[in-house]
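User: Is it possible to get a 3D structure for a protein together with its bound compound? The compound here is flavin mononucleotide. I've pasted both below.
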Amino acid sequence: MSYLSKLPKPFFVLAPMDDVTDTVFRQIVAGCAPPDLNFTEFVNADGLQSPGRLKLLKKLRFTPGERPLIAQIWGKEPENFYKTARELADGTFARELGLPVGVNFAGVDLNMGCPQKSEVNNGTCSALINDRPRACGIIEATRQGLADMLPLSVKTRTGFNEVDMTWIEFLLGQGLQMLTLHGRTKRQMSKVPADWGIIGQARELRDRLAPDTLIVGNGDVQSRRQGLELAERYRLDGVMIGRGVFQDPFIFAGNSPWPDHSADKRIALYRKQVQLFTKTWQDGERPIHTLNKFCKIYINGFDGAKELRERLMKARDTEELTRLVAETQQAHYQA
Ligand SMILES: Cc1cc2nc3c(=O)[nH]c(=O)nc-3n(C[C@H](O)[C@H](O)[C@H](O)COP(=O)(O)O)c2cc1C
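Assistant: Yes, that's possible. Here is the predicted structure of the complex:
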């Protein structure tokens, strides 16, 4: 029995977001209010099995406090999924990442939903919705690599150009431990509201076809309470939240203190993230501008926030940013 079946119902998941939910931000969210389950950003299995492996390892980096953590992979070649899954499951990657003995990923997820042109044109991610033989080959290869050591899941969309229940049926026939459904088609990108009715239909299909596969709904959830309501209405096992965390880093808390957080506290949280970022990415693995999107989360909702943001976002390196944030914090204490 995998740990997935021991999660609370409904369980809450922090969505994988490339260049956002790295180890640093997951630690920040865990420090505010931890989700029940974390995902890594998507990482390319073909790249991990190439000379470029070392450069990609940053996407798999984590600390024990971010567990349980599922590694999300994508790519083209089943053989590379096999090797990557085996190395995730047997602890090879954990060792390469320098994690303590016994600390490992809690599962492997296959990205079959990313709608970006480069991925789709290459026949990967959401393109797999239209390429069932390859999707099947990738799932099978990953399962063999995992050899029952870790659970296997898929995250996908409701269809390619149109809602396609045959795709959901196909996935429910694959013996997955978990299926996460983002309630939009590939064509819809993020342009229309997520359709939770379709997620509910997928759960009904699950009840008939694959009662052991957990169903997680995803799309536009802005608060824990909304997530609970959706899980109850559509009888889902879990709810995944992505961009909602930009509105409230405490989104997984039963009672979020964020709306009442003073400017001081908001700035302090940003400072914590800048410090952790500086400590974690010492060799320039992540450019400083990736911190700008976080600036908008914290430096927000108080007088002068916009001007302050503009100043902070001009910082050229982490030293300058650290100094500016510290000065700002001091000025706020004195005010
Ligand atoms: C900046 C960004 C990066 C994303 N990267 C990934 C990714 O690496 N893997 C993935 O499965 N989904 C990725 N997504 C999709 C999210 O996981 C999620 O499905 C989507 O944002 C809808 O959920 P939300 O409305 O709660 O944000 C990304 C979304 C955003 C906004």
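The longest helix spans residues 263-280. The pocket of flavin mononucleotide is lined by residues 15-18, 20, 41-42, 72, 111, 113-114, 155, 182, 218-221, 241-244 (CB under 6 Å).
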